[in-house]
Amino acid sequence: MKKIFLALLVLATTMFASTELEEAYAKEFAFLKAQKEMLKARADELKSSNAQKLQSAKNEIEKLQQQVLAKETKSQNLSDALFQAQQNLETMSDDTSLIEAVISQGTSSLKEYGIELPLNKDDYPATLKALFEKSLALRDDLSSLKVEEGSFYLQDGSLAQGKIVKVGNVAAYGVSDKASGILVPAGDHKMKIFTAQPAEDVANALVNEQTPENLKIFIYENVNKEISDTEEKSTLDVINSAGIIGWVIVALGLVGILFLVLRVFYLQSSTGAKTLPTDTLSSLLGSGVNSTLEFLKPKKGATARVLKATVRNLDRDREHVEDIISEAIIHESSRLDKLSSTILVIAAVAPLLGLLGTVTGMIATFDIITEFGTGDPKLLSGGISIALVTTELGLIVAIPLLLGGNLLNSWAESIKDSMEHSALHIVNEYNKQK
Amino acid sequence: MDTLVTFIHQFIAYMNSGGFVMWPLFILVFVLWYGLGYRYHTIQRGTKKSPRVLIRKFASGKREIPKGIIDSAVVDGLGLKAEIADRKMLRKFLDDRFYVYQQTLNQYAKLVKTVVIVAPLIGLLGTVIGMIETFDSLASMSLFSQSGGIAGGISQALFTTQLGLVVAVPGLVMGRLLDKKASKMELDLEQIKDILCSEENLDEI
Fold it and tell me: Inter-chain contact A378–B117, Cβ cutoff 8 Å?
């Protein structure tokens, strides 16, 4: 029972308590609902305001971006302009230096003719204009023929007063009482008379403003540079420049020429009279051996000697006679060939000696190169030309000796042949008659 | 006429551009071609038949007038053979008679040879002289002077060598050809001697 009571009690209490709770809950619910409404409204409000702000911010950004773009374009343009300006500046400074170079070149060129040109750095056009005007005036001046009083050196070194005809600044003629002719620079703005080509008539004609028949002229490059007379080298100088080998070659050449002349005389005397063989034969056939020997006795020369030997032994055995003839011819030919090999040896040796001299000269030239380098062409080419002189001498010696030696050899050869032939002829004819 | 005058002027200018060496070379041309021409005219064989045939024909009387060297030699040889019976003597007489032909064959041969040797040497001499001129002008720095200078020296050097070779090369070729012809004809002469001195009957060869 108690238990039931307790249960009822609990139930009553519970029923009582639940009504109270419901009330509280409802209250609370209403409150919360109101709050939720309020929060919801507030959230909506916030949302809309946020969206608005976002929009405006986006707009702002876009605007700013546009601004940046505009600025960037502007800066690009500006830097382009800057570059342009720098380039312009460079061109201008180039132009300025070019103009300055032209002006300085012009002034220095004009200075040679005694024309001073003030350089005005602020007014280039005026300076240039002055430069061109003066240059043109100078050109006109230089391209004309002028006659002026002046002095020039004569051949013996004395100074002569007279008239000088100037053909611009490339040629000149001088006329004075002592001598007239072409003038050439003698250095230091002085002129001297040109001796290599006398041209008195031309100078006189030009002074008198006539046209000369032949215009002999010496065109020079520069008034200040002296024209040195080319010194004529004598043969002796040339040989001397070739040194010891040159003299050896010349000596050999003289010996060779001497031998050549000796040989010519010897062969001349050996040939004898052309009619000697026929005379001998007719005498032999007409008057016999003894009188022919008498006829041959006073005759001189190789052919006569061979004929004498032949005639003396005519009556012997044929083979014996032939041996005697061939011995006599060999004997004579050793004389006829005298000096022939010497001449040809000299002719062969002379160019070789010349080559030796050339090689020696080249070695000397290369020694000079080792010592002084290749800077001065004068040193080198002088050495080379001296080296070549020996070859020249060698050839000059060799050519006549070769020519003469060979021709004399063929002469000697023909003498030998004719000796042989006439001996054979005489023997044949004599035997035939017998 | 004008062309001739200009040609002569050009020729003289050519000769002068080579210096003093050119004129001896030019004279050598005439000497050489005189020798060659003489040789060409004298070395005429005559009939182009072998010595055997010639001897048979002349011996049998089919042919009588000799045309060239070999022909005349055959005629001379046959004449001697008729005169002289002894074979040994005949050879001596043939040697004697043929000497003239041999002399003709060798005339100016040596001269031509010598000129052919000497002409290039003279050209070389001119070259050396021109080179000396060139190097002299290098030395004296008168490189472009009117007479001589570098160009003058080199042109002299080249012209002389050119003329030397122009003289020598045709002379060499022609000389060789004529020499060959002459040596062949000398052999023919020997053959004629041998045939005439042989004991064989002339009709059987």
Answer: no
Q: How far is A184 from chain B (nearest CA, A)?
A: 14
Q: Average pLDDT in the B25-49 region?
A: 89
CA distance A293 to B178: 43
Q: Is A398 on the interface with B (CB under 8 A)?
A: yes
Q: Please, are residues A343 and A259 in contact by the beta-carbon 8 Å criterion? A: yes
- In angstroms, the CA A279 to CA A362 distance is 63
Instruction: Assign B170 a pLDDT band (cuts: 50, 70, 90).
Output: very high
pLDDT of residue A11: 81
Measure Cα distances from B88 to A201, A426, B85, B91, B92 in Å.
86, 16, 9, 5, 7
- Whether residue B139 lies within 8 A of chain A, CB to CB, comes out as yes
Beta strands in B42-184, from DSSP E residues, in sequence order: none
Query: Is residue B31 within 8 angstroms of chain A, CB to CB?
Result: no
What does the pLDDT read at residue B64? 76
Q: What pLDDT is stored for residue B147 in this prediction? A: 56
- Assess B184–A contact: CB distance below 8 Å, yes or no: no
Partner B contacted by A355 (CB < 8 A): no
Q: How far apart are CA B137 and CA B139, in angstroms?
A: 5
User: Which segments of chain A have a pLDDT < 70?
Assistant: 118-120, 225, 227-232
B194 and A CB contact within 8 Å? no
Backbone angles phi, psi at B153, to 5 degrees: -60, -45
Can you read off the two tokens belonging to residue A274?
Answer: 């052309």
Contacts of A414 in chain B (CB under 8 A): 103
Residue A191: per-residue pLDDT: 81
- What's the pLDDT band for B72 if we cut at 50, 70, 90? confident
Contacts of A399 in chain B (CB under 8 A): 118, 121-122, 125
Chain position carrying tokens 């003396």: A312
Residue of B88, B100, B110, B127 for testing the chain A interface, max A β-carbons within 10 Å: B110
Provide the percentage of residues in chain B whose pLDDT is more than 70.
Answer: 92
Measured in angstroms, the CA of A379 and the nearest CA of chain B are apart by 7
The ipTM assigned to this model is: 0.83
